[in-house]
């Protein structure tokens, strides 16, 4: 788990780090330059938030789809168990 925390490519960790950092105001800059710096960092934060939201929605959707597939497999297994009496065992058919 420690290696995941030290990995900067993890979107969640980068988002948490960016949220923890307060934007610094540089001294001796004109207001236009200051606004540009804030807009650039805001667009980066927006992009990171969007990536984080997309990843979390994708993760939850994948979990729901996996649960649906498991339910379908359970139903098929129950149907197969109910119909099992109709057919001869494979071992007997092969002569084992």
From TrEMBL:
Q: What main location does UniProt list? A: nucleus
What keywords are annotated for this sequence in UniProt?
Answer: Cell cycle, Cell division, Centromere, Chromosome, Cytoplasm, Kinetochore, Mitosis, Nucleus, Ubl conjugation pathway
Q: Any transmembrane segments, and where? A: none
Q: In which pathway does it act?
A: Protein modification; protein ubiquitination
Q: Does the keyword tRNA processing apply?
A: no
Tree of life domain: Eukaryota
Q: Where in the cell is it found?
A: Chromosome, Centromere, Kinetochore; Cytoplasm; Nucleus
Task: Write down the InterPro entries for this protein, in alphabetical order.
Answer: APC16
Gene Ontology BP annotations: cell division; protein ubiquitination
Q: Name one GO cellular component term.
A: anaphase-promoting complex
Q: What does this protein do?
A: Component of the anaphase promoting complex/cyclosome (APC/C), a cell cycle-regulated E3 ubiquitin ligase that controls progression through mitosis and the G1 phase of the cell cycle. The APC/C complex acts by mediating ubiquitination and subsequent degradation of target proteins: it mainly mediates the formation of 'Lys-11'-linked polyubiquitin chains and, to a lower extent, the formation of 'Lys-48'- and 'Lys-63'-linked polyubiquitin chains. The APC/C complex catalyzes assembly of branched 'Lys-11'-/'Lys-48'-linked branched ubiquitin chains on target proteins.
Q: Which family does it belong to?
A: Belongs to the APC16 family.
PANTHER family, A to Z: ANAPHASE-PROMOTING COMPLEX SUBUNIT 16 (PTHR31564)
The protein, known as? Anaphase-promoting complex subunit 16
Q: Which gene encodes it?
A: LOC118412037
